[in-house]
Write a structure and sequence with these properties.
This protein is an alpha/beta fold and about 270 residues long. It folds into two domains: about 100 residues, no CATH class; about 150 residues, 3-Layer(aba) Sandwich (Rossmann fold), CATH 3.40.50. It is built from nine helices and nine strands. Strands 6-5-7-8-9 form a five-stranded parallel sheet, sandwiched between helices.
Length: about 270
């Protein structure tokens, strides 16, 4: 991709705005209404279409935006219906359109100055924990189900926690990621989870429990080759599903996780 100074030679036009800044500056706290944010975006498009000729030629089909806020799909659905949307909250039920929209990775950068520090983890043979999850237990409907079946040390092979307690005796979040075979990426309020990229960073095979989620870079990555998908209704059979994966198959999955790491590293470095 090249950035051009002559707009007449451009194939695509970027729409620069921050979905996060919209929330921070315009959203009325606890109002649960986004109308003023949507109106702001409509005014933004009206301004662009009046000042420049390019939007009106295609109704925005050759324009694109990138937005990682949870609200971005609903806020851009009406006035950006033909625009290419790169979204982190890539939920089919919330209007993600195959062939038009694309899915972006989301993660938590622990050290902005050294984003790739402390990555990696144990080899496949040195990961004693079968599966690990820790996260806010009351976010969405999937996590309470996961915790009701597998939380509170109901099974010694599955380390499934709500909020992970910190102590000198307990492993911390990253240690679990680095020493577990599978890392559970269960949806919260929305389909996407930063844990997905974190799992890849630490060499842990992602287990995606999030129906209707479109994973990042799905156009070029065959996720079934390095991740495990578990339907929400199959949470009661989670251990059975994971234990049915042979050691040989698991090692293949983990090896491929390491291979795709570089794609997410480039995005992080950028």
């Amino acid at each position: 991709m090249m950035i051009l100074s002559l707009s007449t030679k451009a194939h695509l036009f970027y729409l620069p705005f921050s979905s996060q800044m919209l929330e921070e500056t315009l959203y009325v706290k606890n109002s649960h209404r986004h109308r003023n944010l949507i109106k702001y975006l409509k005014d933004y498009i009206d301004f662009i279409s009046t000042k420049y000729p390019f939007w009106n030629r295609t109704s925005g089909a050759d324009h694109f935006l990138a937005a990682c806020h949870d609200w971005a799909p609903s806020e851009t659905r009406k006035h950006f219906s033909k625009t290419i949307r790169a979204l982190c909250n890539s939920d089919v039920k919330e209007g993600f359109v195959f062939g038009n929209d694309t899915s972006l990775p989301e993660t938590y950068v622990r050290d902005p100055k050294k984003p790739l520090s402390n990555i990696g983890g144990k080899s496949a043979s040195k990961r004693p924990t079968v599966a690990f999850f820790a996260g806010q237990p009351d976010h969405g409907y999937v996590r309470p189900i996961l915790l009701s079946y597998w939380g509170n040390n109901k099974d010694p092979d599955l380390k499934i926690f709500g909020k992970l307690l910190r102590s000198k005796r307990n492993k911390n979040y990253l240690q679990f990621m680095k020493t577990s075979k599978y890392c559970i990426c269960a949806k919260g309020y929305e389909v996407n989870s930063p844990r997905l990229v974190e799992a890849i960073f630490y060499g842990c095979v992602p287990v995606i429990i999030s129906d209707n989620f479109v994973p990042p870079f799905f156009e070029v990555l065959k996720w079934e080759l390095f991740a495990v998908f578990v339907l929400e209704k199959d949470i009661p059979s989670l251990k059975k599903i994971l234990m049915s994966i042979s050691e040989r198959r698991y090692k293949q999955l983990q090896m491929r996780v390491k291979r795709v790491q570089k794609l997410f590293f480039v995005a992080c470095e950028a």
